[in-house]
Design goal:
This protein has 629 residues and is mainly β. The protein is built from 5 helices and 33 strands. The protein has one domain: TonB-dependent receptor, beta-barrel domain (Maltoporin, Chain A). Helices cover 4% and strands 55% of the residues. The longest helix has 7 residues, at 57-63. The chain is globular and about 70 Å long.
């Protein structure tokens, strides 16, 4: 995909930016309503009929702490499962889709681990440290984004700031988190650097264990821009991260999750370089990007037990053209090369080419788009996907939204070529529709209340599942005695989402995000037909309140997360009980550039599980400071 910049300072903008503020698009609206997920190029969130949530820098800082999931849980229809504490594998599901069916983009680079069986992204490897914005699209949109966008798209952007911003916090379980970012800007360009560090002694990932499982993670990033002219800019970005996690395993003879001495080390590289042209009716962004994930599991006594390397190289072009009046055209093309290898096999490579066009209109109260995409995969041929959305303002700040979109996910290299592979696999596909009504917006730009209600439905076919060869006479069982991957699944997810927010008086904001998601197996002839999908709670609610004492600047906040029961397995035999988690927060400015903050997570020390046999975070107390220079 293209490295489409959400943060696009030109020379003049760089000079005018306040020293302690991120450099942002020169739009008249708050940066928290500028989004890229719907069309692939920066635009106003109110100009799309698709369900999009944007969490900006100020909200991320108010939530506090390095755990990104605490901010993501403010998005309706989004649920999280984690195999232990900070750093453990963390899956994010949108509207009941598989965690691997969520496309994740970081600073313009797709960062999925192409060597993992499902080809998804582990959110345990990403902290909030220097993030400035999170955008979440909760619908299928392969028309613009291509493969992996069945459940939706999550775009994360790091902070780009002039001057210096630093913060650090310390708390329970010997947890230390810090972040530093800074940059210099002039008439000819911008150069920024950032770094984050996280260390914690943790707790036992195994619910039955007693040995603490620690985590250490650090990341370094850079962002450089050269302004050739008012219309042309060259850019280069890179991020390198390394994490070391103590993990628990399934030792013989019981093969039950228990304390082990095994350690997992993950190294990630993502980088992009290219050019951006923005003049009059034409916007173009061309880039080359690379993402690489290396993992190694090792036992201190026995040495490496597993290793893998996944790579993705992508050449892309994205654009927007406004030929005349209210008409606009979004278009793009990309060529991706992926590869993987593991300790147990030599791996394989694949390539895919895709191109799309989307015709739109923005005329008064109406905003609408429709388009299509063609993809050509060197392993299973070509495919098409279509999508359309509409937004219409029926009264001041009140708009009706509707969208329909197709999604697809190409089989992973592991699913195609590993010892359990099946080279006859076809892409997973989906069709999603939703209808919504929105009043105002989350940043309270023009009114003291906002609300949104959305109903949705998604049908997925050709879902790739593992087929056991126990008692089977399938031809592939002759060479895959333990089983193989096959297109045997059909899934339906439907429900509704509600968002409410109020700012009744200056300094006080209350929010609520609720979703009812009914996700079930619809595979004909399956013994699991009608079963709820694993780890998909039907009800999830997040409540938050923030109060700032206007005269003193002191801010107090609280978050409540309530999640209903679910099942851990596809057979619906292992139940995960629902839970409620309460967090209290406080912040106090000291002068204009310094701030103290602190929080209590899981105030009532609730014991719960989002994945069977794995512990979740107990109560913790944290305090920190932030400075802007």
């Amino acid at each position: 995909m293209a490295s489409c910049a959400l943060v696009v300072p030109v020379a003049a903008n760089a000079q005018e930016a306040a020293e302690d503020q991120p450099l942002v698009l020169t739009k008249p609206r708050d940066e928290a309503v500028i989004t890229v997920v719907a069309t692939g190029t920066a635009g106003d969130v109110t100009a799309t009929g698709q369900p999009v949530t944007v969490i900006g820098d100020s909200e991320l800082r108010a939530v506090q702490g390095p755990d990104l999931t605490r901010a993501l849980e403010r998005v309706p229809g989004l649920t999280v499962s984690r195999n232990g504490g900070l750093g453990a594998f963390t899956g994010v599901r949108l509207r009941g889709a598989e965690a691997e069916q969520t496309l994740v983009v970081l600073d313009g680079v797709r960062v999925a681990d192409t060597a993992s069986p499902g080809g998804g992204f582990d959110f345990g490897t990403l902290t909030t440290g220097n993030l400035a914005k999170i955008e979440v699209l909760r619908a299928s949109n392969s028309t613009v984004w291509g493969s992996d966008a069945i459940g939706g798209v999550v775009v994360a952007s790091t902070r780009v700031s002039r001057g210096l911003v630093a913060e650090a916090e310390y708390g329970s379980r010997n947890t230390l988190s810090s972040a530093l970012s800074g940059g210099i800007a002039g008439t000819r360009g911008f150069l920024g650097l950032s770094g984050t560090y996280l260390r914690t002694d943790g707790f036992s990932a195994a619910a039955s264990g007693t040995e603490a499982d620690g985590f250490e993670h650090y990341a370094l990033g850079g962002d450089g821009r050269l302004y050739i002219s008012d219309a042309l800019e060259l850019f280069a970005r890179a991020r390198w991260a390394k994490g070391t996690l103590d993990i628990d395993g399934f030792p013989a003879p019981t093969y039950q999750l228990a304390d082990t001495r095994e350690v997992q080390e993950t190294r990630q590289l993502s980088a992009s370089a290219g050019a951006e042209y923005d003049r009059g009716p034409l916007f173009l962004n061309a880039s080359f990007s690379r993402a690489e994930t290396e993992r190694e599991n090792r036992d201190p006594a026995a040495g490496p037990t597993f290793s893998s390397t996944g790579t993705s190289d992508r050449l892309a072009l994205r654009g927007e053209w406004r030929p005349f009046g209210p008409l606009l055209v979004h278009f793009g093309g990309e060529h991706e090369w992926t590869g993987y290898e593991t300790l147990y096999d030599s791996g394989a490579k694949a390539r895919i080419f895709g191109a799309y066009a989307q015709l739109g209109i923005e005329f008064g109260a109406l905003s609408a788009r429709a388009g299509g995409r063609v993809d050509q995969h060197d392993r299973f041929g070509s495919g098409t996907s279509f999508g359309a959305d509409l937004s219409y303002t029926i009264a001041p700040d009140l708009r009706v939204r509707a969208s329909i979109g197709e999604g697809f996910k190409a089989p992973t290299l592991f699913q195609l070529f590993s010892d359990y592979g099946n080279e006859a696999l076809q892409p997973e596909t989906s069709t999603s529709i939703d209808l919504g009504l929105t009043l105002g917006d989350r940043v309270f730009e023009r009114r003291a209340f906002y609300g949104a209600a959305t109903v949705f439905r998604r049908e997925s076919e050709n879902q790739i599942e593992f087929a056991s060869c126990f008692g089977s006479t399938a031809p592939l069982c002759a060479t895959r005695p333990f089983g193989y991957y096959d297109n045997i699944g059909r899934v339906r997810a439907q429900g509704f989402e509600l968002e409410l927010g109020a700012r009744p008086v200056a300094g006080f904001i209350a929010r609520a995000a609720y979703a009812y998601v009914d996700a079930e197996n619809r595979t004909p002839g399956s013994t699991r037909l009608g079963n709820a999908l694993a780890r998909r709670p039907r009800h999830a609610l997040t409540l938050s309140a923030d109060w700032q004492v206007v005269t003193e600047g002191i801010a107090l906040g609280a978050d409540v997360r309530l999640v209903s029961d679910s099942f851990d397995d596809a057979a619906n035999l292992t139940r995960l009980d629902g839970f409620e988690v309460v967090t209290l927060r406080a912040a106090m400015p000291v002068g204009e550039r310094f701030e103290l903050f602190g929080r209590i997570e899981n105030l009532f020390d609730q014991h719960y599980q989002t994945a069977a046999s794995y512990s979740s975070t107990p109560r913790g107390v944290f305090a920190g400071a932030r400075v802007k220079l």
